[in-house]
Amino acid sequence: MIVGDSISHGAEGDYTWRYRIWQWLQSNNVPVDFVGPYKGTNPPDDITPPSPPSTEPRTFGGYALDAEPFDSDHFAVWGRQAAQDKDQIAAHITTYMPDHLLIELGFNDLGWFVSGPEGTLESMKSLVDNARAVKPDLKFAIANVPQRSHLGGRDDLPIITDQYNELLVKAIPEWSTDISPIKLVKFREEYSCEPEACPAGYDGLHPNALGEYEIARAFSIALQPDYAPGGSSLAVPAVIPPRPCPAPVNVKATTGSGSVIVTWDGVYGAFNYDVQTRVGADGAWTDPSTLSSAPRWEYWPVTDGMTYAYRLRAGCGDALRSEWSEVVSVVAHA
């Protein structure tokens, strides 16, 4: 069972590293059954009006369109912390009785002020203990925490990330037992992401297609002696095709009471959208504004009788944008 946060959960249109490790296991003829309460990725934002937040994780997003069907069961949720999962893990071990836990957690504990290095280590130890209380012979592969591109106001993050990773290296041999061994997964070392640059991430942290391979490779190195003796760890391809990122289509602009509403067909796998506005026939395009992943935007205030034009492009990562859509315009009614 894979236990993780957004890095393991993935967003709609991702392959995910879970898919890549499944491929590696298949290539080594390992009869593996992934288990867990969820199957999908994180879907795009809703376009419905705001409503009270749901306690159920959003895990119904799809995978890359050319990914072959795979055993996608998992226990990975966007935003999840070790501090949360330590209290939930026993119930899922009871339900699914996995033989092996692959754990990728800790960034949110450190990154969102949940706990420092020592507290995050305590949460991870509690997770291990609570899982073992249900299944004493459970095997573990626990990943350390990656670096990310520089986050404003968090100059401490690279420091405490390395401090946690150092503590984890020392703790794992102490936690490991003969019947319940623990392997360290060197996620941080295999992942091409540093405060200065993050070629493995589409937003400075979350894995793009390269990053998915690199995380899967890190886990394969830890698992190879048990799962593929005589085989080799996963190799990262030399050439990785870019994420598909077509321009939005079916863009429409309608005028309402004091505003203009722009809608379009969502681009599968887009993380967000950029929009530009032009006011009047001779106006200049505004600088792009980045929107959420919901295919709807409302612009206000507007001037009665004025013509407003709009165009959009899909955002498929920091460095990947689609071409601009066709321009649509509307005469506003205030």
UniProtKB/TrEMBL annotation:
<dbReference type="InterPro" id="IPR051532">
    <property type="entry name" value="Ester_Hydrolysis_Enzymes"/>
</dbReference>
<dbReference type="Pfam" id="PF13472">
    <property type="entry name" value="Lipase_GDSL_2"/>
</dbReference>
<feature type="compositionally biased region" description="Pro residues">
    <location>
        <begin position="46"/>
        <end position="55"/>
    </location>
</feature>
<dbReference type="InterPro" id="IPR036116">
    <property type="entry name" value="FN3_sf"/>
</dbReference>
<dbReference type="InterPro" id="IPR013783">
    <property type="entry name" value="Ig-like_fold"/>
</dbReference>
<feature type="region of interest" description="Disordered">
    <location>
        <begin position="36"/>
        <end position="58"/>
    </location>
</feature>
<dbReference type="InterPro" id="IPR036514">
    <property type="entry name" value="SGNH_hydro_sf"/>
</dbReference>
<dbReference type="GO" id="GO:0004622">
    <property type="term" value="F:phosphatidylcholine lysophospholipase activity"/>
</dbReference>
<protein>
    <submittedName>
        <fullName>Carbohydrate esterase family 3 protein</fullName>
    </submittedName>
</protein>
<dbReference type="InterPro" id="IPR003961">
    <property type="entry name" value="FN3_dom"/>
</dbReference>
<feature type="domain" description="Fibronectin type-III">
    <location>
        <begin position="245"/>
        <end position="334"/>
    </location>
</feature>
<dbReference type="InterPro" id="IPR013830">
    <property type="entry name" value="SGNH_hydro"/>
</dbReference>
